[in-house]
Amino acid sequence: MPRQRAEYDLQDLSKLIGEIESVKRREQLTGLFRHIEKHCDLSKLPASCYMHGSYEGGCVDHSVRVTKVALELRPIVAPLISKDSIITVGLCHDLSKIGFVTKNGIVPRYLRNQNFDPNQFPSRNNRPWFYNSSQIQFPLAVSTAIIAAKWTDLTWAELQAITAHDGQYCEQNKPFSHHETPLTLLITMADTWSGHVIEGCIDQNQFNKESDLLSVNESYGGDEHRNNNSSET
Ligand SMILES: [Fe+2]
Ligand SMILES: [Fe+2]
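# fe (ii) ion complex -> structure
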């Protein structure tokens, strides 16, 4: 069953920002999230209408989780990637889920569905949130990249990691394929794992289904199948 409650909150987000070594970058991210909190209740916002992270606080929960997963992977697979970059991209990669963050305020991406029934599982027909159709439409990662670049002094590698973080799930990411930086690949992995597995759109029990644990030969009847079909080419 997909996760229904946030594990991480604004305190976890602030703690991660506090781990940024560059003073300039730390101040930029602090300023950005202070500005966001001034204009909306970030602690309540979701990460989607009804899929992963559609619960209260899902947006912060997801962003912190992606950052933590990437930081955990870093010493194993990518020790040369800067920790500051991972924290910046991890916390900012879905900024646009909050909405259009401008100097004067925020146009929210999601609006509460007053008819949502909390006693029933969130689904397409029982969504806790609706898209705000009055916002100008952009691919989420593109508007996120624009907002992040406006508020922080991003490197090109960080900009690519934000823009292409959905990997090849998105048709518009084709131009990035085989040209991803290590940071992009790391964030894509952390985001996909967090959203699909930890937040539960993929039920982890699916990985242990009896049929999936059979060897390919066993699923065809093993030796018996081989013997019966030995003359086949
Ligand atoms: Fe995303
Ligand atoms: Fe994400």
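# post-check
The longest helix spans residues 58-77.
Residues 10-202 form one domain.
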